[in-house]
Amino acid sequence: MARTDVVIPSIYEAELYRATAEITDLYNAKSRGGIVLRDNLAKQAAGGEYTTPVRFVANSALDNRMDHESSGNATFGKITQASGSKVRIKRYVAAQINDDEVDVSQMSDEQWAMNVAQQMAENSAITIRDVAVRSALAAVQSMDTPSSNYHIYGSRVALGGSSTTITAAGLNQLVGKMGDAMEQIGCFLMPSIGYLNLVAGQLASGTPDPVSGAVFYGNEPAALGRALMIADISHLQTAADSTYKADHYVLGFGPAAVTVEVVGRDALEIDRDITTELKNTKFRQDYELEVSIAGMKWAPSSTTENPTIAQLATAANWDENLDDHRQCPLVMGIFQTA
User: Rounded mean pLDDT of the chain?
Assistant: First the structure.
């Protein structure tokens, strides 16, 4: 029985967009706009390694005293622009369905189309999430103005040393890296072990108030009023080695600190293979991502057309594109487990 119509493109496309939107909207809402994930297919026609969004460079010479006694010329401070590079990467999702799986499933072609679209959307969402997190970690580590690790709180701890667990006080020090712009940080992303340490510290120091048979612990905010995203992403944790304890990282995001856009998505392609003993149908769709970090730019030492995720996660490939460190609303904390 031929299976060329197992996945109906029109149903697949609709379900892919629905599932992708559902996942990305969740991230956008949970991060309070600190992480921006979206489809922007209007950019599909643009090519190249990166695009250069424009912003104005700060100029402190625009406001001047007017001298009534002078006939000299007025001073006009020039407004100039600076471009920050968004890096582009190309990905694809592909799946294979064997005929016997379709036969025994008793699914309709429409159900198969939706199932394939959902799985492809979920896999793409994981990749997009990892791209956002790994790029953010690398970018914040590359910031060396006004000094090295300026937006990083904490450090690695040698074996036998005293661990620095996540506490409300530690998060306060972390947002303090933004100086007087600390209120920009509206969301923390951390692994579950870090969240458990945070809660444990508050249970130990909070004041129990028995009300109607329940006990409430007060006197301390859960996360300084910021949103919390808990995700056990492998890149937010490092394993212990012969020298250092295991670390876990906390990322603090301000408005649009990290943006990942889907700027191109090819049509679904279907290939029928009847040369194998077990006949199958293959599905593939290519898509293109554009990544940007507020206040930073993609600046590798050599051209990296379609870089790998590992290259995005390399701090040396990012550089500042700002006039003031507060233009990068992104901070990172390094903590250890209790």
Answer: 82
